[in-house]
Amino acid sequence: MATTKGGAATARKKGAGAGAGSARRTQLLAIAAEMFASRGYTQTTVRDIADEAGILSGSLYHHFASKDEMLTEILQDFMGSLLRQFRTIAEEAGTPRAALDGLVRSSFEIIHRTPHAVALYQNEANFLGSTPEFSFVTKASRQVEKVWLDVLRAGIASGDFRPELEPTTTYRFIRDGVWSTVRWYDPSGRLQHGTLADQYLAILDGGLLAS
Amino acid sequence: MATTKGGAATARKKGAGAGAGSARRTQLLAIAAEMFASRGYTQTTVRDIADEAGILSGSLYHHFASKDEMLTEILQDFMGSLLRQFRTIAEEAGTPRAALDGLVRSSFEIIHRTPHAVALYQNEANFLGSTPEFSFVTKASRQVEKVWLDVLRAGIASGDFRPELEPTTTYRFIRDGVWSTVRWYDPSGRLQHGTLADQYLAILDGGLLAS
Amino acid sequence: MATTKGGAATARKKGAGAGAGSARRTQLLAIAAEMFASRGYTQTTVRDIADEAGILSGSLYHHFASKDEMLTEILQDFMGSLLRQFRTIAEEAGTPRAALDGLVRSSFEIIHRTPHAVALYQNEANFLGSTPEFSFVTKASRQVEKVWLDVLRAGIASGDFRPELEPTTTYRFIRDGVWSTVRWYDPSGRLQHGTLADQYLAILDGGLLAS
Amino acid sequence: MATTKGGAATARKKGAGAGAGSARRTQLLAIAAEMFASRGYTQTTVRDIADEAGILSGSLYHHFASKDEMLTEILQDFMGSLLRQFRTIAEEAGTPRAALDGLVRSSFEIIHRTPHAVALYQNEANFLGSTPEFSFVTKASRQVEKVWLDVLRAGIASGDFRPELEPTTTYRFIRDGVWSTVRWYDPSGRLQHGTLADQYLAILDGGLLAS
DNA sequence: TATGAATGAGTTTTCATTCAT
DNA sequence: GATGAATGAAAACTCATTCAT
User: Fold this and answer.
1) Do C163 and D210 make contact, defined as CB atoms within 8 angstroms?
2) Smallest Cβ distance to C209: which of D170, D196, D205?
3) Quick check: B63 CB within 7 A of strand F?
4) Per-residue pLDDT tens over the stretch C126-147
5) Given CB 3.0 to 4.6 Å as the disulfide criterion, which of B46, B104, D22, D72 pairs with D18?
C-alpha cells in the first residue's frame, strides 16, 4: 500500500512526535526513573508516572511509545555513560592499583549522583536478561566486566595484586558488594560516598585480618 | 502485594484440610518459590504456579488463603532457619575469626541448598519492607545483622580484626557480596560452593594487595 | 464513526483558509483515500494519514473538521461522479444492450482510474448505512440502482434480454460481481480493464454453457 | 517488559481453561460471530460481546486468549467445513456441469445457514491477508479456488462449458457474485436461498441475452 | 481436593480531537 | 499552515480472588 513515501514516516523513529532529546522527555524520564527505582518497574503504573508529572496517563504516549521504552531509554543512557566513564578511568590510570581505586571510587560517585538508574539496573537487570529487547543490558554488562577484568589481570601479572586471586570471582565480589550499596546508601545522609569508598577500599586492599 | 482485605483469610489459615505442613502444601510452596525466584514475585501469576503444579489456579486457594500467604510462608521458613543456623554457628565458634569463617561458609551452603528462598529474599526484601504484613522480614534481618555485628565487634576488640574497620559498613559489604552470588551461582555448575567460600574468605582475610 | 458532536464542525466547514477545493486538501484526500482503502477506515488512524503527508496529526484539522469529513468528502465526490456518468451512458445508448455494455465497461474503467474510492465504497458502505451522516451513500446507491434496473427492464421489455430474468436479482449479481473486482484487480498489472470487461460481458451475454 | 510467560504456559495451549470444544465456548463464539458480522470486527468491542453474553468483558478471557482468537476460531471452523463440503460435492458430481451446479447451490445454502461466518469472511478477509496469524485464510481460499478451477477446466475440456472462458476470471466472477449476496440476502425473507440459486444459475448457464 | 465459570478492579495502550504558540 | 503538548474517553487485556458443583 502507498509504498515508500519514506521521509516523513521514517523521521519519527522512537518517541512519537517529541525529539529523542526533548526537554520534556528528559524530565519525564527522571520522574519515571525515580519511581521505577523506588517501587520497582512492574509495581509502578504508567498512571503513577503521569500523576507525578501532572498529566494524564494517555499523554505519556505522546512522548514514549510504551512503558518499556522508558525503561529502555533510562538503562541505555545509564549503561552507556557508565561504560564510557569506566573506560576512561582504566585508560588514564597509571597502575592497576590506581585503576581499581578509580573504578571503585567512581562507582560510589555514580551511585551518589544517579541512584535511581543504578537501583533500576541492580533490581531489574536479572529479569531483563531474558528478553531480546533488553539484550543491550547484558551486552554492556559484559563490556563493563571486561574493563574490570583487564585491570585485575594486569594487577596480578604486575605483582600488585595477590597471585592466587581468581579474577572473575574477585570482580563479582567487588561488583556485587559495591553496587548493592545503592539499596541502603542515602545520598543526603551523613555517610559521604567518598568515605564509603575509603572504607570499601580499605577492606579490599588489606582484608579484615590484622597483620 | 499485601492488597488483601485480610480478615477472612487469616481466620481460615490453619483450618480446612490443608494443615500448615501438609505434603501437597510443601510441594506447592517449592514450585512457587522457584517461580517467584526466577521471574519475580509480581511477575509470577497464580496461574503460572497452578499450571506448573498441574491444577487450576482457583484450586490453589484451597491450600493458601492468598498469593501473599505463599510468599510469607516461604520467607518465614527461610528467615527462621537462617537465624537459627547463624546463632548456633556464632555461639559454637571458638574465636571471632572462626565465627566469621563459619558464617560465610554456611551462607554459601544455604545459597547452594535453597537458592530460591535466598533469591526471593534478595530480590523482594527491599519492596517488602514497606508493608506491615512483611515487617517480620525486616525484624529477622536486624537479628541476623546483630549476630554478624557481634562477631565483628568481638574480633576488633580481641585484636583479630583490624581496628579501623567500621563494623556496620564491613558487615554490609560482606552480606551484599555474599548473598548476591545467588544471582549467578549455579548449584549444579563446576564451581563448588565450598570453593567459592574459600575464594571469598581469602579476599576477606587478606585483601587484594600482595604484601 | 460519526461520533462527533457535529454542530461546530459543520459550521466551520468552508471557512478558514482551506477552501473546499484547495490543492492541499485534494492532495490530503488522495492520501486518505488510499489508506482508507488499503487498511480500512477504522484501521487507518489520523496519524497514519498525517505521517504519510509529512505533517503532524493535529495539523490535519486545519484542513478537515474531522476524520469523518474526509470519508464523507471522498465518498460524496465518488458517488456524485458515478451517478452522473452512469446516467449519461444510459441516456446516450441506443439500445438496452448497448446501455448495459456501456455501464459494465465504464464500471471497470472507474475501478481502474479510482480504485481507492471504489474499494472504500465496497468495503465500508455496509457499515455506513446505519449513520444518518452517511445516508447520502444509500441514497445515491438507490439512484444508481434505478439506472441499471431501467436498462434491464427496458431490455426485457424489448426482447433483448431473456424474459425470465428477475431484474433486481440480475442487477445485484452484476453489481456485486463487477465491483468486487476492485479487491483483486491490479491497475498496473497485465490484465487490462478493457479485457476484463470483455470477459465479464461474454459471460453475461451468453452464460457458461456451450450451445 | 517482554510479556512472555513461557514454560508452563506452553502446556496450556489455546483457550485458557476451557476445552477447545466446550459448550460455553461455542455459545460465545456464536454471539461473537453475529456481532463481528453485523458491525465489523474492529467496530465490535469485547465488551459488546460480553454484554450480549451476560458476563463481564474480562470473563471472556477465561474462554479465549484474545479477541483475535475468537475471529481465528470462527474463520477456521468455517473455512474447514467449507472446503470439506466443496470437495465432497466436486468428487461426487457426475459431470462438470452438475459439479458447478452443486457448488453454487451449496454456497447459497451455506450463506443461508451460517450467514455470520460468511459475512465475516467476506468483509474481513481482505485486511486479514497481511498478518501471518491469519495466513490460514488465504491458504484455505486457495484450496477452495482449486476445487472450482478444476471443475471449470474439466467442463471446458469436456465441451460442457464454452471454450473461450478464462477459468480464473470466470471463477472470480461467480465467487464474488455469489458470496456477496450475504450482504443483502435475508435468511428469514421471502426470497428462498434455493430460488436465489436458481436465478443465479440461470444467468450463469445461459447469460442475459435472449437467443 | 479439584473444576470451571465468573468477578471486579486495575493495567497498558489507542486515538480523535483541541489549542496555545 | 503547522507544531507540540495535552485531553478524555474508550479499548483490549490481566489477574487475584470467589464460589457453586
Assistant:
1) yes
2) D205
3) no
4) 888 778 889 999 999 999 999 9
5) D22
- In DSSP terms, C161 is beta-bridged to D209
Residue D4 pLDDT exceeds 80: no
Q: What distance in Å separates the CA atoms of residue B141 and residue B143, rounded to the nearest whole number?
A: 5
Residue C162 to residue D199: CA distance in whole angstroms: 12
Angstrom distance (rounded) from CA C125 to CA C140? 11
- Chain E: positions less than 7 Å from a protein CB are 1-20
Neighbours of D155 (CB within 10 A): 24
CA distance D178 to A159: 88
Residues 27-46 of chain B whose Cβ lies under 8 A from any Cβ of chain D? 43, 45
Nine-digit cell string for D133: 496469524
| Residue ranges in B6-114 assigned as alpha helix (H) | 8-12, 23-39, 46-53, 67-92, 96-113
Q: Is the CB of B136 under 7 A from strand F?
A: no
Q: What are phi and psi of A161, to 5 degrees?
A: -105, 155
Residue C1 has pLDDT above 70, yes or no: no
Handedness of CA A158, A164, A169, A174 (dihedral sign): negative
CB contact under 8 A, B42 and A39: no
In angstroms, rounded to a whole number, what is the distance separating the alpha carbons of residues A41 and D68? 29
| Contacts for B54 with CB less than 8 Å, ≥ 6 apart | none
Burial of B79 by CB count in 10 Å (0-12 exposed, 13-18 middle, 19+ buried)? buried
What's the grid cell of residue D175?
465467487
Decide: B204 and B174 in contact? Cβ < 8 Å: yes
Residue C41 has phi, psi (to 5 degrees) of -60, -50
Let me know the angle formed at the C-alpha of D121 by D120 and D123, rounded to the nearest 5 degrees.
Answer: 65
Instruction: Give the cell for residue B131.
Output: 508493608
Nearest residue to C177 (alpha-carbon basis) of C89, C80, C108? C108
The 3-state secondary structure of chain D reads: CCCCCCCCHHHHCCCCCCCCCCHHHHHHHHHHHHHHHHHCCCCCCHHHHHHHHCCCHHHHHHHCCCHHHHHHHHHHHHHHHHHHHHHHHHHHCCCHHHHHHHHHHHHHHHHHHCHHHHHHHHHHHHHHCCCHHHHHHHHHHHHHHHHHHHHHHHHHHHCCECCCCCHHHHHHHHHHHHHHHHHCCCCCCCCCHHHHHHHHHHHHHHCCECC
Does any CB of chain D come closer than 8 Å to the CB of residue B56?
A: yes
Question: Rounded to a whole number, what is the distance in Å from the CA of A7 to chain C's nearest CA?
Answer: 8
Cα–Cα distance, D107 to D91 (Å, whole number): 16
Tell me the sheet residues that pair with D209. C161
A7 shares contact with chain C (CB less than 8 Å): yes
- Specify the amino acid at residue D7: G
Identify the structural domains of chain D with CATH numbers, from first to last: 16-65 (1.10.10.60), 66-211 (1.10.357.10)
- Contact present, C41 and C120 (Cβ < 8 Å): yes
From the centroid of its chain, how far is CA C137? 9
Distance linking the first and last C-alpha atoms of chain D: 71
Rounded-to-integer distance, Cα A1 and Cα B7, Å:
60
The whole-number average pLDDT for the span C8-26 is 59
**Residue B4 zone, left/alpha/beta (φ > 0; ψ -120 to 50; rest):** beta
Contact A2, C38 (CB under 8 A): yes
| Interface touch C35/A7, C-beta < 8 Å | no
- Structure confidence by residue, pLDDT tens digits, A78-128: 999 999 999 999 999 999 999 999 999 999 999 999 999 999 999 998 888
Identify the bridge partners of residue A161 per DSSP, sorted by sequence position. B209
- AA identity, residue A109: E
